[in-house]
Design goal:
With 262 residues, the chain is an alpha/beta fold. The protein has nine helices and eight strands. The strands form two sheets. A six-stranded parallel beta sheet has the order 1-2-3-4-5-6. Helix 2 runs parallel beside helix 3 and helix 8 packs parallel to helix 9. The longest helix is centred in the first third of the chain and has 19 residues. It binds ligand 7PJ. Ligand 7PJ binds next to strand 5 and strand 7.
């Protein structure tokens, strides 16, 4: 899964045409590099980020979804918590809803259920702006994450989203300390008992920065090591900014794992 940000801060020119043009070119490059999903986000969910209006998010995201589906026929996921973006994005041809807030916004469960799209739920606490103030857990992090995801799958099912439409994600970096993130990576395999495809996003994240003392532009090698560890423990989808190198890392890990099944 290649990350495509359509936030103004990621395209400094800001102009509409320029954003669209740059988005299409970036998606094309990621698909050429082996991405199978393009994850389009119009709201920054990094720690401390500001909230954007749904009108603004719609305007940024939906035209890009329509264009990528039309031009490349690719699988598009909507990195959104906003019900309107889910509805309009689905109409524009998206295939997955990737909501870091796990359909907790008012109307999101209903919008997702009606869309008939696949849904990724992710472990987090609170909001991206304040989540790093909520890192005290009663139980070991993998147990907290397991219970949270199990509960969100149950809530989604009750709202009419069948279990076979669901993807689960432990939410690396979301309301977690470096110790939580490292521990969770060691125990990622335990989430396989949720019996849903596992999505993992570690690309360029601060856990790499903290472990290696690297700035964001120098985190690729650390991210590739984490990608290989995730694949070995059953990750089905890796969300990454660096598709080409990640595809190689995943295929290398797979070559070794496949040999082990002989
Ligand atoms: C994730 C995400 C993640 C899913 C972001 C960043 C922060 N969606 N959106 N999983 N992270 N499903 O890329 O650093 O880990 S935004």
């Amino acid at each position: 899964m290649g990350v495509l940000n359509v936030t103004p801060d990621s395209f400094s020119d800001g102009g509409h045409y320029t954003t669209m043009d740059a988005a299409v070119r970036q998606a094309e490059n990621m698909l050429r590099d082996g991405a199978r999903i393009i994850d389009i986000g119009g709201e920054s969910t990094r720690p401390g980020a500001e909230v954007v209006s749904s009108e603004e998010e719609l305007e940024r995201v939906v035209p890009v979804v329509a264009r990528l589906v039309e031009e490349f026929g690719c699988l598009v996921s909507l990195d959104t918590s906003c019900p309107e973006v889910m509805r309009e994005g689905a109409k524009a041809g998206a295939g997955i809803i990737n909501d870091v807030r796990s359909l907790t916004r008012e109307g999101a469960l209903e919008a997702a259920a009606a869309s008939e799209l696949a849904v990724c739920v992710m472990h987090m606490r609170g909001e991206p702006a304040t989540m790093q103030q909520q890192v005290d857990y009663g139980a070991p992090i993998e147990e907290e994450v397991f219970r949270f995801l199990e509960d969100r799958v149950r809530v989604c099912q009750a709202a009419g989203i069948s279990k076979d439409r669901m993807i689960v994600d432990p939410g690396f970096g979301f309301a977690k300390t470096i110790e939580h993130n490292l521990r969770l990576m060691n125990r990622l395999h335990s989430l396989q008992s949720l019996e849903r495809p596992l999505l993992v996003g570690v690309s360029r994240k601060s856990m790499i920065g903290k472990a290696l003392g690297r700035e964001v532009e120098d985190r690729l090698p650390g991210g590739l090591a984490l990608a290989a560890l995730a694949v070995q423990q059953g990750a089905a989808i890796l969300r990454t900014h660096d598709v080409g190198p990640t595809v190689d890392a995943v295929n290398m890990a797979w070559a070794v794992l496949k040999e082990g099944t002989n």
